[in-house]
Design goal:
about 100 residues, mainly beta, 5-stranded antiparallel sheet, 1 helix
């Protein structure tokens, strides 16, 4: 999992809902215990955001917030790759 200033641009844009940084947003899954959205950025990158209620999901792949690079930007000067770019965990009862 990469955690650098280049991937943080995408994560921060989604967390802070900076809509001027992405050109499309689509909710692909929504329930009381899970949310999944995809964001397309003006550089062509597509990032999938997932949230799940950890009190409901108990498997070993549980997380609070997960950000996955589904399609790297073009051009890709920082050589970003597909895959999970950040996981954020909050204590139970947190965000």
């Amino acid at each position: 999992m990469k955690n650098n200033k280049h991937t943080n641009y995408y994560v921060t844009s989604i967390i802070q809902d900076i809509q001027t940084r992405f050109v499309a947003e689509e909710t692909t899954k929504f329930s009381l215990s899970q949310i999944e959205r995809t964001y397309e950025f003006d550089d062509g990158a597509i990032v999938k955001y997932e949230w799940q209620d950890k009190s409901v999901v108990t498997d070993e792949d549980s997380y609070n917030h997960r950000f996955t690079m589904a399609r790297p930007p073009k051009p890709n000067p920082h050589k970003l790759k597909k895959g999970v770019i950040k996981i954020i965990e909050y204590p139970e009862g947190g965000r």
